[in-house]
Recover the amino acids of this structure.
């Protein structure tokens, strides 16, 4: 995916993605993808500004190559954070949802 480096310091990049808009789901997908890159220690994705802050202990080129290879259509969705809750077992009570 195309992006611009907005700020860079040792072990940290702030990039802006070149996409018209980013949904919360897309932000989650990007964060999940970047966290799986070897050497990446922390990731924050800001959906409103289409920015991502990546802290890393690997080479700068590895992070840039991972960003360049990323694509929303080819990426897999992140796993759910928690399983669905149990159904109501109280007699006479309707289950939620």
């Amino acid at each position: 995916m195309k992006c611009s480096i907005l700020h860079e310091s040792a072990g940290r990049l702030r990039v802006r993605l070149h996409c018209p808009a980013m949904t919360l789901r897309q932000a989650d997908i990007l964060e999940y993808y970047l966290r799986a890159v070897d050497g990446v220690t922390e990731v924050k994705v800001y959906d409103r500004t289409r920015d991502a802050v990546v802290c890393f202990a690997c080479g700068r080129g590895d992070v840039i190559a991972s960003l360049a290879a990323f694509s929303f259509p080819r990426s897999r969705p992140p796993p759910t954070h928690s399983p669905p809750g149990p159904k109501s077992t109280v007699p006479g009570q309707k289950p939620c949802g």
Summary: Residues 38 and 84 are 30 Å apart (CA to CA).
